[in-house]
Structure formats: structure tokens, C-alpha cells
Amino acid sequence: MLSILVCHSYFLGFDQKQKQRAKPYPPLATLQVASMLRAAGHEVTLFDAMLDDDTSRFERQLDVLKPQLVVCYEDNYNFLSKMCLGRMRRAGCEMLALTHHRGVRSIVGGSDASDAPDVYLSAGADAVLHGEALGTLFALVDRLNADPDAGAAQLSEGLPDLSIAGPGGVVRSVAAGRLPEPPAAPLPAWDLVDVAKYRRTWQRAHGYFSLNMAASRGCSFRCNWCAKPIWGNQYLQRPAREIAAEMLHLRRHYRPDHIWFADDIFGFRVDWVQELAAALAAGGGGIPFTIQLRADLVTERMTAALAAAGCREVWLGAESGSQKILDAMNKGTTVAEIHEARRLLGAAGIRVGFFLQLGYLGEELDDILATRQLVETARPDDIGVSVSYPLPGTKFYEAVKQQLGAKTRWQESNDLEMMFAGTYHSDFYRAVRNLLHDQVTQPGSREVAQRWSSLIANEPAWRNAATTGAPVLDVAGARS
């Protein structure tokens, strides 16, 4: 069997905003793949980039462990991996170059690799996976195990969801359909992670320790701006009792104070959440947790089930306080549903956060002020604010791709730089972001109200002249 070094390229230290937040989580999808490879009989080690300063330890592991194969499988549950910050892409390519220089074979998987296989093949990868592609990954590993010197064309022949480098450039595989997934390992390879180092980081910054889980993969909704290079429009939910058993395992062996569920949408069905609550209670109780959820899925029954299961915080993808913008996004929710979800959750003692998005196509000052009104009246406990980010493969990206210049990705998550011609310049959206945050932390502040008034009075000066004739997504077409 092969000796395999599994890794990812998300370095917390390369993103100053996330480093200051000091809320790192182990790379869950990477650990799941490591566990599956080990269950198949391979000798598996891990390079976890999250808390490292640079690639030097990865280089040492290559030299000491001398693996036959490197599998760089990004954490697909990390939303920043979907975005692929520029610093992380460079780190991933540096790791592939170090691997290639030593004559070690490598396979890459992740959102950015799926979208830009040429970048990773040029850096030295032997093969790039498209999507989750677990069946293809294991077929490649089996072929390398049988013939470690097999060429890329021989390795990829007949396999789906795969790109290799050919004489004329990238060669995308052509196959009838996806391969079946290999059997899932019961638990991620937590034993390969330096959990104590994560614990120290959390305890120093926040006084408690949080770990991550995932109860599902993907999302079946079709917001125009949300890229789905890994799971497409699938929603694949694990059995509730399996999730309960995993949480109880973490409680016994690692003692976290809190769990972050990385699902795009947690629970989905009330009966599933009720079953989870019952299984946790039968096991002696779970761990307080935070989730992401859609406003239109929050009902009285769902709220009661979440509270019974131990949910302490819900982040809603509110996006905007303007119904016009929600419709343009094909979000499928209403402002009234956001208010009602916040009311129900708050009444049950569950904290509520809003994810908000500024700068979407067609957004004007009135729409931004509607978002301000939403925050002012709904009074979420916290918010996260971003600007619309064109991700390849989305209708939103197709509408603005002709406007994209040299900068097509953020370098760090705090960049908040408009990459297309929005209604306003980037500094305007940064100012709105700051005001919205201050509105949450300083409700009723006269100083914040004065800053809003000043911003509104000077709004024409912030307008982007390039938006004249800018594209606007056809709402009817978006829903078709």
C-alpha cells in the first residue's frame, strides 16, 4: 500500500482578519479523506497548514517521511476555500512545486482547483479533481498503488471528474458518469491533528474551545451568486444518530465547549433535528452548537427542536433588507421571513447572526437603507458583512465577467474590494460595513446616526461612473 501525505493549503496566518479573529478549525474535509484513505489500508500522515506560519514544516515532512503520494485536498466546508484567497492559492502552488521537485506524485482537490486546474497542473500536480470526486480519487490511488510510475494519461484513462496536463494544455477527462463513492470512514482522522494547539489558540483568545462538525454536504437552493464546484445542487444529509454519535465521541475524547456545524444548511427537516435531540439526550447530552440556516426554514417546531438539540446560535443568510435585491439574487426568501426567524429564535433564547451582502447588481441607496432598517428593527446579536463576490460557475459571474480586471480574487478575507463595476466604489461599501457593525454594537447611538447622515448626504460622490449601463440579472430568467 502507498505512503500518503494528506494536506491542505489554508494558512490562518496569511489572512490577517481571520488571524485576529483567532477562531481556527481543523480542515474537516481533509480529515475525512485522510480517514478514508487509512481505512483502505494506506499509510497516512497529515500536514495541517492552519496554524503554521509557512510551508517549512511541509517541506520537512516531505524530506523525513518520503511519501509516495501527496494528496492536497482542501477543506470544502471552509467557505474561504470556496472563495480561494490569493495568498492560499500561492501557498498551494508552492507546496506542489516542493512536492514535484522531490519527484513525489500529487493529486489536488478543492474549489479553486476545480475552477482553475491549469494553475495547479502548472505548479506540478499530476492530476486535478473536479468536484468532490472521491470515487475518482480512490481510483487514482489504486492505479498508483499498482504502478507508482504510471504516466498521467495512463492514470486518468476512463476516469471522470479529472484534469491532467497534456502536450497542448489541460486535458479534461471524458467519462460516462461519476464513480461510486468509497465507503465512508466512521470518523474524521482527529488523531492526526494537534488538537491541543487548537485548544490553546481558542482558550487564549476566547476562554473556551470549539471544534467543527458537518451533518450534510451541499445545498439544494440556487442563489445566483453561490458557486457549487464541489457538491453542485445536491444536499446529502447524514443520519441524525450518526451525527449524535460523532458529537458524543468528540465530547468524550476532546472535550470541546462548543461545536460549529459547517453545513451550508443545517438540519433542513424538523424530524431530523428532533431525532438528533433524542439521540443526544439518550447519550447523556451533547455540546452547545452554532449553525447556518435559511430564514424560511425557521418555524416554531424547528426552533423548539434546535433548542432541544443544544443549538445556541443560528446564522441566517439574510443578505439584504431589500426584497428587490433578494429577488434579484434568486434567494427565495422574504424580508418578512427574516424578521420572523429572528423573532422565533430570539424568543427561544438562541442567538442570531445575519450574513449581509452589499453591492449586488442593481443595488441602490434605497436598498442599502432597507438593509440598515432590517438591522435596526430585527436587532440581530451579530452580523457578518461582505460585498458581492463573483465566483466562477454562477449566473452572477457570467453577468459581470466582462468587467473583471486583473484582480479576480481577494488576497485576504478583509479585502472587501469590488471586482466589478458596482453602484459605488469599494470605500463606500467599507463605510457601510462599519456603520452596520456599529449599529449592532451601539444601538441608538447618536454618533452612528450622524455618520449615516453624512454618508447619505455625500452619496453622489461615491458613485461609480462605470455603472452606467451595467448589467442587471433578469429576475424572471434567474428563476427559470
Description of the structure:
There is one protein chain. By secondary structure, the protein is of the alpha/beta class. Helices cover 42% and strands 15% of the residues. The protein has 21 helices and 15 strands. The chain has helices spanning 16-21, 28-39, 56-65, 79-83, 86-101, 111-115, 117-123, 134-146, 152-156, 195-206, 240-253, 270-282, 300-309, 323-328, 335-347, 365-378, 395-400, 426-441, 446-457, 459-462, 475-479, and strands at residues 3-7, 43-47, 69-73, 105-109, 127-129, 162-166, 169-172, 210-213, 216-218, 235-237, 258-261, 289-293, 311-319, 351-358, 382-387. The strands form three sheets. It has a seven-stranded mixed β-sheet, with helices on both faces. A six-stranded parallel β-sheet has the order 8-11-12-13-14-15. Strands 9-10 form a two-stranded antiparallel sheet. The longest helix is centred in the N-terminal third of the chain and has 16 residues, at 86-101. 46% of the residues are buried.
Helix content: 40-55%
The overall average pLDDT, rounded, is 93
Question: Roughly how many Å apart are the termini?
Answer: 49 Å
Extended strand count: 15
Tell me, what's the shape? globular
Alpha plus pi helix count: 21
Q: Rg from C-alpha positions?
A: 23 Å
Structural class: alpha/beta
Oligomer: single chain
How much beta, percentage-wise?
15-25%
Task: State the main characteristics.
alpha/beta, 6-stranded parallel beta sheet, 21 helices, single chain, 480 residues, 7-stranded mixed beta sheet
